[in-house]
Amino acid sequence: MILDKVTYRKLIILLLHFLDEENYKESLHSLERESKIFFNMKYFGELVMNGEWEKAEKYLSGFTKPEENNCSRELFLQLRKQKFVEEALSGEYTCRVNGETCGVVNTAPARAKLLENLKTLVEQDPELLEKLGIPSLCKSAFWKLIKLICPTPQRKLRKLKEELGFLIIQFLDEEKFHETAHELEQESRVFFNMDYFWKLLISGEWDKVEKYLSAFNLGDDECLARIFSVMKCQTRFEALDRANLFQSVKMVLEKNPFLRNKLKFPDVHKARLMTIIKQTMDWWVPYCANANWNISFENIPTVPKLCHIQLPVTSAEHDGVLPEPSGLGSRGTTCCTDVKPTNVSVVWELAEISEPTQCCALVLPDDSLEEKNVRLVYSYSGDFILAWAEDATYKLWIWRSGHILYRKVSANLQSQLYHPSSGMTMINEIGRLPQDPCFALESLGLFSAFGGRISTFCWDMFEKLATFADPSPSSTYFTFLDQNTSAIGFNDSSILIHCLSSKKNKVKLQGHEGEITCLVFSHKLNVLVSSGADAQLCVWTANGWQKLVSKFLQRLDAREAPEPSVVNHMEFHLDHIQLLLVQERQIGIYEAPLLHPLKQWVPIESDIPITFATYSCNCQTIYVSCKTGCIKVLVSKTLTIRCRINVTAYAQCAACVQVYPLSIAAHPSRPNQIAVRLSNGSVHVLEPLEYGEWGVQPPTLEDGMY
């Protein structure tokens, strides 16, 4: 069930008003941020005046990023500057007048002045300007609408509101508003999410564990009080200890009379809330066109029970009744193979792109192809592409026409290889032993190494800012945990957690037996995932840096246990829970932090090995490149192929037999644009034809596939 954008926006606005009226403030502000529809300046101002800098920056980050424009950059800069100033002045800072202590610094005037500056910037920021207002509605508009389409006796209204709570939580979960869903679970107290509670506990997030438990009325439970005491005293459980602790807590919760009816989510059809809203809107629109406005509610679509009885629906997506109910948080596992479905009742054909006329393709100009490009990445704002060559130099392509500098990469416009007026070049030290380059692009700079010491560059001026770390062991992978902390993997199997401001190492992680091949961090779960040449995956909690999980991956459809293969690339979904893992013979989607397998995709034997795979910017698509030269475009939700792009569509015919894609970079805001690095070192930008997509989404089981 898919609502049009206008109706979907109206539903979100109804929910925002409803959450505000029910005083579910944490859910309200979380939905504001995750839906990006309304920037609540009043709430943002309260965070600033209270000095809640992390919350203020997190809220702002839901709507814009520092690299979006100058106003956004200045917003983040001023927030961080004030935070830094107050931290420097806090603690034991006092002043003395005539030998007497006169107290700490009063921050209120500075914060008030800052807030005025921030308001001005917000009103000038194109990312925020149109999100500062929200339509006013009559009081209890959403609740009145629900009571209208679900007539309920007065004595049962409490039950109706409980059912509405389930529907809203299901909607938030399906639409990936996960944080809002968990906030609403706590504030409405209709559903205790054991899966979410398990993730918090296994990650060692004790404050969140206690907050979640405390939100529910558990009565005078002495056993639970003792468990709270254990959690407060010991914050460094090993993974096995946490698993045992969870089982103990689970047994207590299941016996608690106050929670007994809140541990199971009711069976609800998929997209239930959107279905009800769509049916209501379909009925309502003809009346809105009636000039007389003599509306009778006698024939309005009604629902006896919100959660359990499904209305017949006829739409472009479904013919007849919607599919069978699907419970929230089901943990099934799917293994997909690269075969074309049979017995398809829905007409559909896999799109195959083989000719240059079937897509937009651009070869980036390069005056030094004898030094092959070995790494490739877009800038965060998507206005340039950066590549690393075999000689440890860096190349940057921009899109310019005369004096006009375009803000977005395009396959329809010619690009230029950028050379700064200073004549400087970005080049890394090269280590004594051969080593693939590693890098991490941050909004204000570039961190990279080529087997030698780590260098930081200002990419717009090609200026080297600093060099640090010993050349041995060699760094093999970087990732940022936050603006001040990075994780660095080395060829001696160790991982360092490094503080950028102090230039000191916080902790050294040991657990692999080969060089580190990839690192990725989940801001939602607060865990670091590492992969190594030993084919092992490890999950580390940032709360104390203990190892939570260690495992080797196997194919789900293998009859015999094959040798584990190395993970060459990892990438978190936008929800920071689903983790894409790329190996030579398969790709898989796993659920962090326990790395529970959700889906795997195995190409046909002739397309093996896989050279790379990556999510599109909206995570609805996965691009997979193979050594045969093709790029397969998969629907990430089902891992079914919607399009195959052959190398003949974008590479010169004479070279097609000899080259193949080695890596893919996805544009940060255009889900259908990718940059591809070929084995001959050339870089190509690919897009579908104007306003198009890569093929047509294949039918699902619900559409009558089998």
TrEMBL record:
Pfam family, one: WD40
InterPro entries membership: CTLH_C, LisH, Topless_fam, TPL_SMU1_LisH-like, TPR1-like_2nd, WD40/YVTN_repeat-like_dom_sf, WD40_repeat_dom_sf, WD40_rpt
Keyword Repeat: yes
Domain CTLH stretches: 37-95
Keywords: Repeat, WD repeat
WD repeat spans: 509-540
GO biological process, alphabetically ordered: regulation of DNA-templated transcription
Protein name as catalogued: CTLH domain-containing protein
